[in-house]
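Working notes for the structural subgroup meeting. M.R. asked for a predicted model of this chain before we commit to crystallization trials. I am recording the input and output together here so anyone reviewing the notebook later can reproduce the run.

Input as submitted:
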Amino acid sequence: MFPTNTRIVGHQVVYLDETDSTNLKLAQLLRSTAIKEGFVLRAGFQQAGKGQAGNVWNGSPESNLLFSVLLKPNFLHPSEQFSLSMAISLAVYDFVDVFFPGRVKIKWSNDLLLDGKKVCGILIENTLVGNNFKQSIVGIGLNVNQDSFTPQVQKATSFMLQANQFFQTEELFPLLVEKIEARYQALKDGWTSKQREEYLSKLFRKDEEALYIIDHKETSATIRTVDESGQLGMEIDGQLRFFAKKEIAFVY
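Returned structure, recorded in token form:
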């Protein structure tokens, strides 16, 4: 089922019609089952899809690509966790750009924007043992054929809405898996600096002055960089300040 042309990612795929969250379900499976790296758990529908910082991301049944991948990046030091996030973000960017060239951006830290609207969310949950990377559960929710969103979900879109056509998710899935494996292998091969350069070049609003909510008030700032830990470096009144997730909010 769901064949892929990869050596690691997607060598085994399990499909569920419905689950609460593929990340949560995969974490539960790992507590009782020995699972090889690259295992993918897919779902047709998530009752409680998880987003960054506890946000909920829901979709329509059988309309999107919803899955989690087990990776074991023990070649990374725990301080390099964000390099994995960059690699996965770039993989999804590579995939979306095939269908919508020149219309994709990465919104810090790892949302994918298509024509300025969110088309994909990524949630990576890492497990560390001491100073060693044990495993990562990489959750991906890509809006494919969803034609409407709840009022709580702002600035979202899908492949179908942007292209005005229906897409076969089973045809999209193998290509997305291939893009993930390619970027993951590049990370293994030591392309961290190169991928960081690419990530910054594709970052939404980089070097553009815009409004953000910082310290509970609208502030004009310019995104300049992202440090090794994943904090966003912003120039405010001529000074470079760094922010963690939830310390700032984008204003549209």
